[in-house]
Amino acid sequence: MILKKLIVLSFALGIFSCQGQQKQNTMNESADFPGAIPKEELKKNLSPEQYYVIVEKGTERPHTGEFNLHFEEGMYTCAACGSELFDSDSKFDAHCGWPSFDQAKDNSKVVEKKDISLGMARTEVMCANCGGHLGHVFDDGPTNTGLRYCVNSVSIDFKKEEESE
Predict the structure, then answer these.
(1) Predicted local confidence at residue 161, as pLDDT
(2) Position 2 in a domain
(3) What is the pTM of this model?
(4) Which residue numbers are catalytic?
């Protein structure tokens, strides 16, 4: 009898503990983000792949993004709202298949949030202005910051140096 109760209790705990690990599938449209954009507007203005990544928190395939091996001087901006996120001086080739940066333009430009989706613990990176999903940050970067912001190309745009001033 006791064994039966333990099995039922273990099963119930397993179900409830897994519920907290489900991925949040949409962009935050809250007061936490001063430049939050309604999803209907984003759907009109973004490509289907951009919407999937920025709003639904998806990931583009590695080695396919426009900015993976892009090294011009300028500023990388949020594809949804235009906020300046990463300076080209912080970009490096991490050989991971996505654009990588060792720091944001400044700490107020991105928001980091614990992400336990897909059975792993990571840190999600979002635009601090609109809440759009950019990618993830890892602590295995090769520069003195020790960080590697791994960003989806479709979640960013680029302004050449003369355009960004």
Answers:
(1) 86
(2) no
(3) 0.81
(4) 150
Q: Cα–Cα distances in Å, from 115 out to 100, 138, 150, 162?
A: 19, 12, 14, 36
Count: domains in the chain: 1
Is the four-CA dihedral 26, 29, 34, 37 of positive or negative sign?
A: positive
Give yes or no for a contact between 103 and 120, defined as CB atoms under 8 angstroms apart.
Answer: no
User: Regarding predicted confidence, which is higher, 11 or 160?
Assistant: 160
> What pLDDT, on a 0 to 100 scale, did the predictor assign at position 29?
53
CATH of the domain at 96: 2.170.150.20
Q: The tokens of 100 are what? A: 């990588």
**Among 81, 84, 86, CA closest to 28:** 81
Does the pLDDT at position 102 exceed 60? yes
- The parent domain of residue 30 ranges over 25-164
Q: Give the pair of three-digit tokens for residue 80.
A: 């949804």
133 with 147: CB under 8 angstroms?
no
Look at residue 22 in the predicted model and tell me its pLDDT: 37
Q: Kindly state whether residue 6 falls inside one of the protein's structural domains.
A: no
> Is 20 a domain residue?
no
Tell whether 17 is covered by a domain. Answer: no
